[in-house]
Specification:
It is a single chain. The chain is α+β, with helices and mostly antiparallel strands. Helix content is about 20%, strand content about 25%. The chain contains five helices and nine strands; from the N terminus they run ααββββαββββαβα. Strands 4-8-5-7-6-9 form a six-stranded mixed barrel. Helix 1 packs antiparallel against helix 5. The longest helix is centred in the last third of the chain and has 15 residues. It is globular, with a radius of gyration of 17 Å. It starts with a helix and ends in a 5-residue tail after the last helix.
Length: about 260
């Protein structure tokens, strides 16, 4: 069911938001598309893992079931994905130090040039302690499966919706999965994971193992945050508040 104008208006008017209750239309979407497999024309690309290990299976895919040409989400067999932690980017502000435990931090995100442009050079890159970004798409040169969301209309740094721990968090598409291991899905910045599960539950080397996290990217220019976006925010809450209006509009697509 499409959310009413009243619901969206209430959400848009809410200030100092760090996490939202999951609206009923998003709950309904979560329950409906979780069941079964993503197949046929709904399945944009498969062959991905949501965890490493010898018992892991390549059963995850990028899916557009029920939202063709409007959104893309990660789907597994009767499930979604887990949440590994990404600490790539500019860590000149180390936050509370939890990213220090990460064993595979990269010095920049995939969209570092775009970040500098849209922020008018106010920041060098995304900061995993501040910016709630999602690692989405797979870019490899070793022959493994790849997926480029841009080919399906998703714009770099556009707003994404993440349902985790009975919460709705808005993030941005801020990085891609590389070829330094298995072709994985299900990863987000430390700040986004913290909003989901709290400071004690996650750090740079420990995420959320259960495959119950819904990651949704939205297509088109409408999903790109505008000039009010606080790219130079000092903390997660300040940045999140600056993209919530766009996020509230985008979740209306989840019917």
């Amino acid at each position: 069911m499409k959310p009413t104008f009243t619901l969206l208006a209430i959400l848009a008017a809410t200030q100092s938001i760090t996490a939202l209750k999951v609206p009923q239309n998003v709950r309904d979407f979560y329950k409906r598309v979780k069941v079964g497999r993503c197949e046929g024309s709904d399945k944009l690309k498969g062959g991905f893992f949501d965890k490493d290990g010898k018992n892991a299976k390549a059963q995850w895919s990028y899916c557009q079931k029920s939202v063709a040409k409007q959104a893309i989400f990660i789907h597994g067999p009767n499930t979604f994905a887990n949440m590994d932690i990404d600490c790539d980017g500019d860590l000149s502000d180390p936050g509370d130090g939890r990213c220090g435990s990460s064993e595979d931090t990269q010095g920049q995100t995939a969209f570092v040039d775009q970040v500098r442009k849209v922020s008018k050079n106010k920041i060098k890159d995304l900061n995993a302690n501040i910016h709630p970004y999602v690692v989405f798409g797979n870019d490899r040169e070793d022959g493994g499966p790849t997926f480029d969301p841009e080919k399906y209309g998703v714009k770099p740094l556009s707003v994404m919706a993440v349902v985790c721990g009975e919460k709705l968090i808005y993030g941005i598409w801020g990085d891609t999965n590389g070829d330094d291991g298995a072709p994985l899905v299900g990863e987000a910045s430390l700040s986004l994971a913290t909003a989901c599960y709290g400071t004690k539950a996650v750090n740079g080397n420990s995420g959320h193992d259960e495959s119950d996290v819904l990651y949704v990217a939205f297509t088109g220019d409408e999903a790109v945050p505008g000039p009010r976006t606080k790219w130079d925010a000092k903390d997660f809450a300040e940045f999140e508040d600056s993209i919530v209006e766009v996020g509230n509009r985008m979740i209306g697509r989840l019917k």
